[in-house]
Queue: 2 jobs
Job 1
Amino acid sequence: MRTFSVAATLLVSATMSLCDTGVIIPSGSNEPDSSILSIESLDVHVSIDNGHATVSLKEVFQNHKDTNLEGIYSLALPGDAAVSDFAVWDDLTRIPGVILERKRANELYEQIRNQTLDPGLLQSGEVSESNAPGQAKHSTEFTVNIVPIPAYGYKRIEAEYRQAVPVVQFGSDFVFPLKASQGQPATVHSLSISIELRSAQPLASFETVSKAYPLKITRQTRNTIAASFEAKNVELASDLELKYSLANEKTPQVTAYRAEGSEPGYFEASAILQESRASKTPQQTSRTVVILFDTSLSMQWEKLERSFQSLEAILRSLGPQDAFNVLVFNSEIQLFSPKPQPATADAVAKALEFVRGSKLRAGTNLEAALKAAFMQRAQDAYIVLLSDGEMTEGTLGRSKFAGSIDTAWKTVPADERAHIYALAIGDDANVRLMRRLSEHSGVFEQVNSTEPLEFKLANFVHKIGIAPLSTVRLAISPATKPRFVYRLAQDNFPGSKASWVGEYTSPGRAQFRVDSRTGTRAASASLRAELPAMDTDHPYLPATWARARVDALLEKIDREGEDKATIDEIIALSRKYHFVTPYTSFLAAPRALLRPRLIRPGDPVLRVRTDPSISSVIALFPFGLTKPLRYVEREDIWQTRFVAPDDLADGAHTVRLILRDREGHVFREQKTFVISSQPPILRVHVAFERVHAGEQLKLRVQASGTTRTITARMYGTDPLSLRWNETEKANTGVLTVPGGLPAGRYSIHVTAEDIAHNISHQEVPIEVLP
């Protein structure tokens, strides 16, 4: 079993998303290189309408090489953001993204790419060990494959995403990621930023936290702010962060959108939740806080550092009347103490040292960790989970896992059931799983790799021990007018904003009432508002409602499993309102080329679109399976399901298609698919096993032919990318041992990833001499 010292990883960051604003990583590299591809211009427009942000990016990249290039455009999104538009430019032609079923988009991308044309593929979610087979995990990282980028030419990319900006303690914090999560900051030759902020609730304050981008306010009223910034040769050394607060008005607010015609209308009703004496928890009240600290390998580098910061902030917020315990978990569980201890300064210091001395290990048993935390029973108890939500052991799959945890939680006596507070850490965190856990009378928050931690962490810690409102409901009369009404965020704490979105078909006046309760105390606020026959002033509403509807449908799938009607509705809403789901992708390519050509690994469905004269299609698979394809008239496509056998060898395989037309003519075609199931094989060689601080150490790594990236890391250094050296017939690189590094034994961690995203790790011990 490999083990890694937590203390030896806290200062190092490693993530694929090296620059969150969007960069093109050249083929053959795993990091941006401005000497190959630089950012010529970046135009950013941010519109925040009643807490709903729409962010539009226009980027132009310059190729400094004399050959055409291929690259991956990487865009890491904040929080629960969702891409709503995407386009690439082919010379002077804009190729907009279209929403397709995910598997079909994959097929088309590969075929078009082989024609040296310019497709872009944008997806969300990966299948991981924490999911049931075929179940996609939400991810906030999006990648777009770009080919070709012309020699000494330019490539223009456009992207748009939507993001909710929550209200906490009457304040909001918006962050647009600009800085690199590791390595040197990118430099933009021309940077332009424009901000438009609108709020139905009056604005009490507005502040630009990021001093690197001093915004000039061009318009300011009680409910709106407009600002901008322009500059040349800007180093993106920090993110753009804005803070604003709302006036505490108790009356609910209602906004609506309805276009002309027979389309339904959409509305949002919101209210600032008020604090009552019953909702306060006196500081003298004792709390028992049990912290689950994830030390599995998926928490390496930046995620581990942020997790430790959060742990320290939580422990130092406790008073002498409180008690705590820390459970470190991966495939195993270690307790700081058999039972919760008083939160003295000495105990807190020992707990932090206990975590620093723990080891990173492969494997994660989140189910066992939570059940162990349930056994730390106490009244007014809080379980705080610091993790990315990945699981490899125990009960897997969101629905089965949630059911197991629900059952275990309910076996605890009611007065000792802990509130579960979940802090999802990292761009690839399993957000839906962590949010589901927080439904046990708790709180959910997510922090991405480069966004400022302070605002979210302070609010998260503040809520530990503060009693939320027990009930928050929206009542609408007449009740027959609206339908499919969804709560946008389950934050019932005073000072936050409760919002609902819904659909309506009959314009007219309606009464909106927000009711809340804490213990025996109840509060109510109402507003009579018009649901208009036509109003297009808030264009974010239709897509916001559609995404809430899809989230509800995905939760239904988690509980009950997949069914055709639910998946079809998800795909239809995704196509209509332009956002990516686990079942859909954006594909940007010339419309004439949107034809299925290739079967991708693990595809359970073969789909073929043919000439109208074709009357039958038969597929002959290499493992002896012969299947006729069924014609689906409403989609004008032939399809059949198939499953590759477990013993099918890795590599490229051919499927033969036999097509027959109405006149009896027979046509034959061959298509390919690739199976890759084994992780790459690594052999690492170092020039010396004993070195002095400040010296350089040459690495030689031999790996399987399908290996895509090889990265070496050591305590105190930035990740090193190893490149193929034709002379030495190996991947080589030179690692500089940090100067001033104390003498002792250290490890160089080498990670290899292949084209199918299989990963291998190897440790090489070295000794640093005095």
Job 2
Amino acid sequence: MQHESALRAISNRLTVTPVDELPRIAGFLATQLANCPLNEHFANTKGSNSSVPVHKLKTRISSLVQERSAAGRFTAVVLIKAIIDNGGENALRASDSWARGLLNCLNKPDPIEVKKLYLITLTRIFILTQNDQTLSREITTPLLPSFIKASLGLVRPINVQKGAGSKAVSSPLLTPVLECWTRLLPRHASVFRPFLNQLRPICLSLVADVESSSLDRDLAIQLLCLLLWSAPRNTVAQEWNQMAANLIKAVHETASKLFRAVIEEHESNDSSLQITTGKHNFSKETKQVEVDLAGLHPWAGIYEGSDRLAALLSWLTCLVSTSTPESMLLPIGVALDLTSRVMSVTVPASKAGAADDLRYHKDASREEKEELWTHLPQIHMACLDLLHSLFSSYGQVLSPVQRTNVNQLLDLFENMSWHQDIRSGVYKIFSHQLERIDVSNLDINREALAKVLEHCCIDLKSGFAERVDSTPSALKTGAIQITSGSISGGTQETVASFSSRRPNVFEAAWVLLSQALRYCPGTLMSRRIRSDMDRIAVLLDHRDAMLSSILNPILSKEGKAANASLLPFVVRSAADEIAVEALLRPRMPFIAVGSSEIEHPSSQDGANGEHEGEDESDARMDTDILSQLEDSVEQQQNGTLETKDARPEGSSGSRDIPLNESQSSGAQKRLIDAVDSSVLEGNAIPSGEPDSRDSKRPRSGAVLEDTMLPEIQENSNEAAAGEYPMAQSLGFTAVSSQGQQFQVERQDMSMVSNASVPGGPPVDDGDSDDSEIPAIDPELDTDEEEDLE
């Protein structure tokens, strides 16, 4: 209901508003239409609530298309564009009459901007109908030829009065018409076939004209390559190969005339492309007197010749990169031979007599050579674009010649590194190739590659210096420390705004930095270059470069990292990124969340009851006996008895050990922290029952030493049943008091007494290993010493 009300409001607004005032609200009405479900409303649903407002809207737009004033036609084309973009298939079915009306509007004397809207809207209709055979048959097939004819009339040159005479200039609608043709031709190639003889001369004239804009020339070159789609069936490959061969020969012919002042040392592998060494007339300017093999008009002078050579190279680049309906075979060797010849001609070094200087004819004037040097960077840039296109289109096919290509690029960079565009082109090619080739197997000149990386760092530094200079003065006052944290923090917005206006060389160097750190082995770069690259990555907060440096460290002969890691800088500047988290997490120790102890509830059977505070000590008893205690030397010599009780009931802390006792112990013994009452139930022999064991007669000297241990061990075995293996093996006796409280007592094994031990027999508190029981020295027996006295 709401959308129907909106449609009624739009129709009413179009009806009641004067036509001259409609352009002011055309944008608002188009926005309202875009928010409505037009595909549903334009469906053929007779009797629905929306049929009436939709019919009024269509009728009003049709009347505006046929309006006499340009304001009404402008409003109509704006609304039609909004409807076909958002209305779907049903809206396209209703656009048949609108498309015919817009075709008639192309011939009316409307403003240039309004005619551009006509072209854009009609092109959009033809593109959207290509996937529906019915719509294509009803709209595109009958209307597209009329559109091409009308657009051909729009690109005719315009005669402009200039002084006493007139001069022909290009039409202001040339660029939009070329854009429409390049978009429609691959989709409707058969419709464009009858117009090939009219389209090709227009494009060739734009390519040959020196005064053509770069955009118009690029569109004309692209259209020339797309015209191959309209060739008759089974002749596309033949015409493509013929065009490529003609372009290569035209480049060589143009280069021979343009480089006549240079004594070229390049030798082509193709005998038909050998450089002819003839006598040149340097008194006249170089020129092309006839149409070349590519079909371009003659040229004269170094300026026009350089422009023509760059245009031919751009045409060949577009031909290689443009998709075709069939697979094509390009003579790669001939194309690379062409680039090798063009790139071998460079600007001489500043020093006279340098090793890379070219030889020139004596008759060539200095003015001709200097003018040639001025235009060489433009030609080299076209060559670099051709190489980049070849590498992108053919990929692994060029693997056998990768070494030659890379060395050519390095030589060109060494001679032409002073030019910014040359550096940018070389950076782009290396960034693309480092990911796809193994640089270590190409036998590259290490010094030349280091020079490329060094200039890459310099370009990044200069770009960052420009960013710092462009910051507000308030940010530059005082001592500002430029760190990765500061860039990623408070000045992140400044870096983002600067990235939108970075020069091309900075963008190319930015990509090359991360690619070189990731794929270049450490053997191809010195430690100084690597350190500079790491510093630049940290300074510019280049996270991809820092991660690449971390993943590809320089290894020493021992296989260890020889350079400092950038991991702390990455963590500081990009700790919230998932890539940094994935890099850090495997290096972190595992930390368990929650309690690591498992509580075991203690159960007690019988009448002993339930003891509180023993759960924690029970859990620790199964894994470790914490407290350790040892007999002192003084106790062994004096024979004094020292009984140490276990922790009281319910205590969960550890037992304190005296410092002097723990330090004087040689062989340490363990102490049970707590004993579960269920373990000691029913089988322990009470210490207060004298009838349960026979009293021992005290013996002296060696007799007591020989017989005491077996007797104590036997009594311990009798006191501990098979249910207490731990207590028996450790030499402890469990003593019961009223069946509620248990204590663990330890008896000194070195005691010698004439009286029985009160409360029970002597208890062996040694471990199961008898080697830890201290031996009794007979010489220290106090009883024998008293008898001797």
